[in-house]
Design goal:
The complex is a heterodimer. Chain A is mostly beta strands. Chain A contains 1 helix and 9 strands. The chains are: A mainly beta, B alpha/beta. At the A-B interface, strand 2 of A face helix 2, strand 3, strand 7 and strand 14 of B.
């Protein structure tokens, strides 16, 4: 299946629901369980900021220049480069194991404006610089980097989904964090748009 | 969940679950966006059940659908998913809510029927009471305090939500930093497991005295408001903000655990520690003048007083060497020593807690033949050994009389001092540390 159906949950808390995505530039703090200690895996704090989203021609030019991919996006799709700051911090003190955390392909995905469809990230030759995917975070690390995504051309207000359980953990039920993968549009006249109208 | 992920990638799967987890499997499938995933069900339990019975399960009928299990497995692996199978939907999440005025009796009934209590009397969290409770912290009422997961996906909650539960449990506003640290830890007091776990909650630092916690005589009994309420609110938060504690829906502890009412909650008696013995929070890297909350995971504690040993360390070793319910794969040991016992240990040559811990770790050994027979080792450790994961893989090759450490590491052993010096007792349990959390961040 090329497209995946994202789960829904209603919440008034920013980022906890596809109805309340975190805007670009806003830092969200959240928690993950990580590591192989059972039945009490360690908990870590994450701080995630979507700093920018570059799309279309500009994204394609950068992708080609950096050798990320030598292909155009799939027919009918645009490349989107998401600039993300990601921090991984210890939540507790104690004799705990300093598990590194690795963002994998699919930890971040793009989704439709209503959050009901996720778009599988494109296959790339290498990750854009600075790399986020596949580079381990030690406890206390906070780094900026880029990831590459694809969204349909007609998808003007896509979302970014962070899957908290994706990284090598059996505990996949923390639920996603939702971000707005598009910049606020002051010219928007769509009365149904919750972002700006 | 892994099956659902594979199905989304186009890989056919036949997820099999046991009957008691039917609702859980369905819930997880829904959470990952495929609530109608074809799940095959077999009778429960399968752990430690003879192979012949397991075979009967596979050759018999699915107890939910009534259809042959084998047919369902073959169909799941060979018959393409229909649109209906992959249909997604929305899940209603439990959200904190405000309810209108009513009589006190009706409101209490509403809380009970909504499963918002531990079935002991509560104080109704009116707007005024919650506002008063919020005076116990400098944090804003709308600030996100944390997330909890008790079976369902994580629920996010605010400082105000925590305050409402603090009111219900009978807290005073000055307890709020401790209660917020507890909630923000992300550790649900009520675990979902079939194993009926409980928590141990230990408070260290100046806040113990500020809020009047008991670390002396009767500290583990229901004889102190702060000790009792902090333990109780942990359970209420887990139920109300972590969507937990509903039997067969978000809780599967077969017998449950009486400790869950208020958990093993106390303050360490720092003032009675022998010279050279550090308070627990200092052992964990906090400064003595910082306040912390340490949360442990386990089943229960027992009273001990071994009158047959001439030394306290010998008696403690006897305690440590008795198989605990969680022995083996994930065993922890918590020793709650009366100050008399701690001072006796100093006289016996143990200048600090770590020396006691190291001694017990090194001297607590178990023959491999016994180790492999522990239920949890059989269920989990053996699997790891068969996968080649060390040290289990090497142990599997060694003779049964080989002695191995009974505890997974010295850091699985905790020594805490609590009590009023009225008798040289100690209590021991299988609790191991999940983590120590700052209370001062929530003042």
């Amino acid at each position: 299946m090329e497209e995946r159906i994202a789960p829904q949950r209603s919440s008034s808390i920013l980022g906890s629901s596809r109805d309340r995505p975190v805007p670009i530039g806003v830092t969200i703090k959240t928690t993950i369980e990580h590591g192989d200690r059972k039945p009490t895996p360690e908990r870590f704090n994450l701080e995630i900021t979507l700093l920018d989203a570059v799309r279309g021609r500009e994204a394609l030019d950068r992708i080609k220049l950096e050798g990320v991919s030598d292909k155009a996006p799939r027919a009918g799709f645009d490349y989107v480069l998401a600039h993300i700051r990601f921090g991984y911090f210890r939540k507790a003190r104690g004799p705990l194991t300093p598990h590194p955390y690795v963002l994998e392909d699919g930890t971040f995905t793009a989704a439709s404006a209503d959050g009901k469809i996720e778009y599988v990230p494109p296959s790339v030759v290498r990750q854009p610089q600075q790399e986020l995917i596949g580079v381990p975070f030690s406890v206390g690390d906070s780094r900026e980097g880029w990831i590459v995504l694809e969204v349909p051309e007609e998808e003007k207000r896509p979302l970014l989904v962070f899957h908290r359980g994706h990284a090598a953990s059996a505990y996949e039920v923390w639920g996603p964090i939702w971000f707005r993968l598009h910049v606020f549009d002051p010219m928007c006249i769509d009365a149904s748009c919750a972002d700006c109208c | 969940m892994h099956c659902t992920t594979l199905e989304k990638m186009g890989v056919p799967t036949a997820p099999i679950q046991t009957q008691v987890f039917e609702s859980l499997g369905r819930m997880y499938a829904g959470m990952v966006g495929m609530p109608r995933h074809r799940i095959v069900t077999v009778p429960h339990p399968i752990s430690r059940v003879p192979a012949s019975i397991c075979r009967d399960y596979i050759e018999g009928n699915d107890p939910v659908s009534g259809r042959p299990v084998i047919d369902e497995i073959v169909e799941a692996l060979t018959k393409p998913l229909t649109k209906d199978d992959t249909r997604s939907g929305s899940q209603a999440r439990p959200e904190p809510t405000r309810i209108g005025p009513d009589t006190e009796e009706n409101l209490h009934l509403h809380f009970l029927e909504s499963i918002w209590t531990d079935y002991l009397p509560i104080i109704l969290p009116t707007e005024e009471r919650v506002a008063e409770m919020l005076k116990g912290t400098s944090h804003e009422r709308d600030e996100v305090a944390g997330e909890l997961r008790s079976g369902y996906e994580a629920c996010t909650f605010t400082v105000e939500n925590v305050a409402a539960n603090a009111v219900m449990a009978g807290a005073k506003p000055e307890f709020m930093p401790v209660i917020l640290a507890l909630a923000a830890s992300g550790v649900p007091a009520i675990a979902t497991s079939t194993q009926s776990f409980a928590r141990m909650i230990v408070v260290n630092g100046p806040i113990r005295k500020e809020i009047g916690m008991n670390s002396g005589t009767g500290a583990l009994s229901p004889m102190n408001r702060a000790n009792a309420v902090i333990g109780r609110v942990a359970t209420l938060i887990s139920i109300n903000l972590g969507a937990g504690g509903v039997p067969n829906r978000t809780y599967w502890g077969s017998q449950g655990n009486v400790t869950d009412y208020s958990h093993v909650t106390f303050a360490e008696n720092e003032e009675a520690l022998p010279d050279g013995w550090e308070p627990f929070h200092v052992q964990m890297g906090f400064k003595p003048d910082e306040s912390s909350l340490s949360i442990f995971h386990g089943y229960s504690i027992w009273h001990w007083k071994d009158t047959y040993e001439s030394t306290k360390i010998g008696a403690l070793l006897n305690t440590a060497n008795r198989p605990l319910p969680s022995s083996g794969y994930k065993s922890g040991l918590s020793l709650l020593l009366d100050p008399i016992v701690a001072h006796d240990l100093v006289r016996e040559g143990f200048p600090n807690k770590q020396s006691v811990i190291n001694h017990i770790y090194e001297k607590s050994l178990v023959p491999l033949g016994e180790f492999w027979q522990y239920h949890l080792v059989e269920s989990f450790g053996l699997t790891l050994a068969q996968k080649g994961i060390e040290p289990y893989a090497s142990w599997l090759k060694q003779p049964n009389d080989t002695l191995i450490p009974r505890y997974r590491g010295a850091d699985e052993i905790s020594v805490l001092v609590v009590g009023g010096r009225t008798n040289d007792f100690w209590q021991a349990g299988d609790f191991h540390l999940i983590g120590s959390f700052s209370i001062d961040e929530w003042r």
